[in-house]
Amino acid sequence: MNLLVLRFSAMGDVALMTPALVAIAAAYPNVQLTVVTRGNFSPFFYNIPNVNVIGINLKKYRGIMGVYYLFHELNVLGPYHSVIDLHASLRSRLISLFFWFKGVNIFKIIKGRREKQQHIRRFKKKLKPIPHTVERYLSVFRKSGLDAPIRKGPWINVDGDAKMYAKDFFKSLGIDKKSGLWIGFAPFAGHKLKEWPLHKSEKLIPMIIEEFPEAKIFLFGSKDEAPILQTLRRNFEQVFLVTGGKLGIRGELGIMEKMDIMIGMDSSNVHIAALMKKPVIGLYGTTHPFSGFGPFAQEDTGVLQVDLPCRPCSIYGNTTCFRKDFACMEMINPQDVIRRIKLLLNVNTTW
């Protein structure tokens, strides 16, 4: 049996497929999983049995005709028993429709938009936990007749190339071997409203150095974010930048594997680190883990947040603060992060 699994973006949502795919692959060793996603996301699926990744460049398949060409290319690689649509975007629905006309079974994710809307409405808010994204993915497989329990992580593993890229990166920094505490910090997110105010990050770094003098801090961000990361780094000798470029996702995974703990926003870095079974601290403000996007298997310990009646005001962070004071993030202090680091790493706190 060959299943065509569709999920094109965003990065964190694609990475969150891994626990579901690991579960299905373990429970059904005779099932082939053909995963279609962006080509640069393929390292997430390393070492998952019976998973074949078709990495695509979405820019090549624009418009209805582009989607049809993609369908045709995928169809040649079949046949498929079912299409598992974990995206439910216009593109994935069109591809599914083309396969449906050929008699292929179609199973589509239910995103729970109504429940999520109840989370973010300003008045008469109903905030209660809804299924995690991973559980929603598994429910699609369940509808197709494949039921499987979650397996023990890590759910993302790194390959030999990733380890080599990371080794070369550390050597370029003059680091020959790991010693002391290594802390990853990703101060950015896909939407500004999900980011901790920059002045908080500026205070956190020297506080970490004061509390953990032997620690090394690795600042994660894109190439475009490098100038701001450089200002955060200042002249601290134990602070280093990890800014994409030629490293790519594979290289960053290799580097992240060496971290003892990962700090970030409700963003892909925190989700990916959690899937690698690394302790994480996700700073949540405008969004909320109850909406199904908590760091997987660390929805409680891995989340740092404050309780406010206006939270959450957004599912994805792509909105504005109607209070205008950004209290949900301003009320999270660097001392809170230090306490959580010590809690997760079983270090006695003095704060």
Word description of this protein:
This protein is an alpha/beta fold and 351 residues long. The chain has two domains: 2-143, Rossmann fold (3-Layer(aba) Sandwich); 168-344, Rossmann fold (3-Layer(aba) Sandwich). The protein contains 13 helices and eleven strands. The chain has helices at residues 11-15, 17-27, 63-76, 90-101, 113-120, 133-143, 160-172, 198-211, 226-233, 248-256, 268-275, 327-330, 334-344, and strands at 2-6, 32-38, 51-56, 82-85, 105-108, 182-186, 216-220, 239-242, 261-265, 280-283, 303-304. Helix 2 packs parallel to helix 6, helix 3 (63-76) crosses helix 4 (90-101) and helix 7 packs across helix 10 (248-256). The longest helix has 14 residues, at 63-76. The radius of gyration is 21 Å and the shape is globular. The model has no long low-confidence stretch (mean pLDDT 95).
Please mark out the parts with pLDDT under 50 across 5 or more consecutive residues, or reply none.
none
Number of helices: 13
Percentage of helical residues? 25-40%
User: What percentage of the residues does DSSP assign to strands (E)?
Assistant: 5-15%
Order of helices and strands: EHHEEHEHEHHHEHEHEHEHEEHH
Summed up, the domain count is 2
* Major pleated sheet: 6 strands, parallel
Could you state the CATH homologous superfamily of the largest domain? Glycogen Phosphorylase B
Mean of the pLDDT scores? 95
Note the overall shape.
globular
